[in-house]
Amino acid sequence: MSRSVLFVASEGLPFIKTGGLADVIGSLPKALAKRGHDVRVVLPLYKKIIEKYYDDLERLGTVEVHSGWIDQPATFYSAKVDNVVYYFIEHQAYFERDGLYGYEDDGERFAFFSRAVLDMIYFIDWWPNVIHSNDWQTGMIPLLAHACYSDDYRYQNIKHVYTIHNMAFQGNFGVDMLPSCLGLDYYYFDTGAIKFDSGISFMKAGIVYADKITTVSPTYAQEILTESYGERMDSILRYRKYDLWGIINGIDIDEWNPKTDKHLAKNYDVRSYVSGKRANKEALQKELGLEVRDDVAMIGIVSRLTNQKGVYMITDKINEIMAMDIQLVILGTGESAAEDSFKWMEDAYKGRAVYYCGYNEELAHRIYAGSDLFLMPSLYEPCGIGQLIALRYGTLPLVRETGGLKDTVNPYNKYTGEGNGFSFWAANASDMVYTLNYAIDQYYNNKPGWKGLIKTAMTEDLSWDKSAATYEQLYYEICNWAD
Ligand code: ADP
Ligand code: GLC
């Protein structure tokens, strides 16, 4: 039965991206729409979206949003992409800034956004069966709907799904925000419902008030119930564990397709990957000023450079890694300690290692295509999109066995030929180097094994098909929909 779902998020492709959340918001709604549902997405109207897409947007109208002590106008816009309607919420002072997050008033900005989303539903008079919120920025929505909008039965009828993409970003703020920005009573703090330390938590509100909670891989769903991965929310998650589902992310296999990718020097598929990857490696070496050698093992990294991603295991062992017969290409921005180490590395290993400090979508495509190995030794990883793209491009992921990395990368077994990559378990740099040495040895000395791995990697089903069906099942369950 066709139903309606409103996805609410703080970023989403094709309009705006800083990480994997945008990949998910750009592809899961599309996959659900393909299954016949009316799926729409709402995002803040950031400066970068205005600069690139303003002329494509239709202005719908303005309402006064009662966000706590002040009433402020929100203007709504819309656009349609691939059968999915996107809405945008405009508030100049909050969203027309250079970056997306990391501002002192982030709590205030996303409190406003959350209330404006609920007001928008009334304004456009479209009443979805499900509101599907994502990450801390939208965690307040299930609570706000319950506390401030439930006089209207149409809001009461809406069910709420809350997806955790990363437990580490929780949106924890002072308690004064309750009346001042959210228009909520202190009751929600006093009863402990959304209390966290001495303040309140947007993420906790999502966990407590949504009908169902999901996270982006089965293993991470288990991990966050433990003290080691729960980021101090494990007890509240354990309390709701029967409503917590772990559903693995897919990728947009049309967007990430080495056969049609416009950014590549040469397109290829599973039959033509040998010449295809060779041409892409050569082009990448020329583009980045590396020594041109088609036989060398090329290791690629495309990542936020933060502790989560295990980057300090790499910086600690950079000399040992570079002692191998390899080339290394790193694309990413993040913590200055990591950036500085990689800048040093580039100087120390000229012609063999390159660090591109920045965000570059096109270069990312070329690194996925031109590399032989994709290194992603994350300390924790809710799902990970990078390793999925790498698989699709026949670039074997080398990962730590955690979260979605564990669920999607099957380590090579040289005796049976099984596997689609390489992995190690302990969060220990020596184990990473050991596994890297092993992988490089396979690359140079076990050509048939390597070929088998690439074939398996490139023929994996990385699409949303299976997971979109699981989300649909989840929606059915909370809405009591019959087929
Ligand atoms: P996270 O969302 O935790 O950063 P994911 O692996 O889920 O990690 O998703 C990261 C996404 O962002 C991938 O699509 C990756 O290709 C992309 N990405 C990360 N850093 C960069 C960068 N510097 N330039 C281009 N794309 C990047
Ligand atoms: C977060 C996680 C990442 C996941 C992405 C999309 O950014 O860190 O593991 O792939 O969200 O769900």
Describe the structure.
The mean pLDDT is 97. This protein is α/β, with parallel strands linked by helices and 483 residues long. The protein has helices at 20-34, 47-53, 92-95, 106-124, 141-148, 153-156, 177-182, 187-190, 202-209, 218-223, 234-239, 273-288, 311-316, 318-322, 336-348, 361-370, 386-392, 403-408, 429-445, 447-459, 465-479, and strands spanning 4-8, 38-44, 58-67, 70-81, 84-90, 130-134, 159-164, 172-173, 195-196, 199-201, 212-215, 244-246, 297-302, 326-331, 353-356, 373-376, 396-400, 422-424. The protein is 40% helix and 19% strand. The protein has two domains: 4-250 and 465-479, 3-Layer(aba) Sandwich (Rossmann fold), CATH 3.40.50.2000; 273-458, Rossmann fold (3-Layer(aba) Sandwich), CATH 3.40.50. It contains 21 helices and 18 strands. Alpha-D-glucopyranose is lined by residues 19-21, 24, 165-166, 216, 249, 381-385, 404.
